Amino acid sequence: MNRFAAARRVVVKVGTTTLTHGSGLLNYRRLERLVKTLADLKNSGKEIVLVSSGAIGVGMGELGLSARPQDMPTKQACAAVGQCELMYTYDKLFGEYNHSVAQILLTGEDIVPGKRRDNAANTFRRLLEFGVVPVVNENDTVSTEEIEIGDNDTLSAVVATLIGADALVLLSDIDGLYTANPKEDPTASLIPVVEDVDAVMSLGGGSSSIFGKGGMATKLHAAQTACSAGVDMAIINGSDPTLLYRLFDGENIGTYFVGRKQDV
């Protein structure tokens, strides 16, 4: 039995491969199921923050690009186009369930200790008080190598600690953490519970998607950040967003990383 059933403030991160088809264009059927599930969980009394990847991937699809751009101006152009499409879609879908959304775009400068981080935390807090669903992404249109966060797995863990979340859920294209890469090793088995994240860091791998840049390694780093702050985390398969119901009913789904706040 996990502790997700008791979680009130929840961060859910959805990756590019979950949101889009192989073409990079939005998978509207899956997105609709995700929003419906999150709206229902919110109606049950949970506060929901959604960290959404996909701006660059969606922008690539909109602009007809078949490979992830390598130069910064093209990445930022894709992000500018894709973020508009993402937020329009989230606003429309959540609005069908009478929930408002707010866009929050962050860079590395916004999450280091200081006034900007405090301002971000206060904004999140007030939006949640108003019953709004914050939709968070890295501000790819202005991020540079010097100030980028790097990936939304890391961003979601930072947001979870920033707002004092009870739980963080990463929706991925895999069922959870395995003993080996299940796409390459048929004997790989799912690890249901991780008590010590440091002990499994060697199991991280890279991203296999041309549209996203995450991978298991970034998810494990996110688990380090979240769990050390006392935030429980889970990796579950995002192809079926309704798995969130089972997770928050207390069932062990995917891989559960046990949060243990470290003494300072």
From TrEMBL:
<keyword id="KW-0808">Transferase</keyword>
<dbReference type="InterPro" id="IPR005715">
    <property type="entry name" value="Glu_5kinase/COase_Synthase"/>
</dbReference>
<dbReference type="GO" id="GO:0004349">
    <property type="term" value="F:glutamate 5-kinase activity"/>
</dbReference>
<keyword id="KW-0547">Nucleotide-binding</keyword>
<dbReference type="InterPro" id="IPR036393">
    <property type="entry name" value="AceGlu_kinase-like_sf"/>
</dbReference>
<keyword id="KW-0418">Kinase</keyword>
<keyword id="KW-0028">Amino-acid biosynthesis</keyword>
<dbReference type="InterPro" id="IPR001057">
    <property type="entry name" value="Glu/AcGlu_kinase"/>
</dbReference>
<dbReference type="InterPro" id="IPR001048">
    <property type="entry name" value="Asp/Glu/Uridylate_kinase"/>
</dbReference>
<feature type="binding site">
    <location>
        <position position="140"/>
    </location>
    <ligand>
        <name>substrate</name>
    </ligand>
</feature>
<dbReference type="InterPro" id="IPR019797">
    <property type="entry name" value="Glutamate_5-kinase_CS"/>
</dbReference>
<feature type="binding site">
    <location>
        <begin position="172"/>
        <end position="173"/>
    </location>
    <ligand>
        <name>ATP</name>
    </ligand>
</feature>
<feature type="binding site">
    <location>
        <position position="53"/>
    </location>
    <ligand>
        <name>substrate</name>
    </ligand>
</feature>
<protein>
    <recommendedName>
        <fullName>Glutamate 5-kinase</fullName>
        <ecNumber>2.7.2.11</ecNumber>
    </recommendedName>
</protein>
<feature type="binding site">
    <location>
        <position position="13"/>
    </location>
    <ligand>
        <name>ATP</name>
    </ligand>
</feature>
<comment type="similarity">
    <text>Belongs to the glutamate 5-kinase family.</text>
</comment>
<comment type="function">
    <text>Catalyzes the transfer of a phosphate group to glutamate to form L-glutamate 5-phosphate.</text>
</comment>
<dbReference type="InterPro" id="IPR011529">
    <property type="entry name" value="Glu_5kinase"/>
</dbReference>
<keyword id="KW-0641">Proline biosynthesis</keyword>
<dbReference type="Pfam" id="PF00696">
    <property type="entry name" value="AA_kinase"/>
</dbReference>
<keyword id="KW-0067">ATP-binding</keyword>
<dbReference type="InterPro" id="IPR041739">
    <property type="entry name" value="G5K_ProB"/>
</dbReference>
<feature type="domain" description="Aspartate/glutamate/uridylate kinase">
    <location>
        <begin position="9"/>
        <end position="237"/>
    </location>
</feature>
<keyword id="KW-0963">Cytoplasm</keyword>
<feature type="binding site">
    <location>
        <position position="152"/>
    </location>
    <ligand>
        <name>substrate</name>
    </ligand>
</feature>
<comment type="pathway">
    <text>Amino-acid biosynthesis; L-proline biosynthesis; L-glutamate 5-semialdehyde from L-glutamate: step 1/2.</text>
</comment>
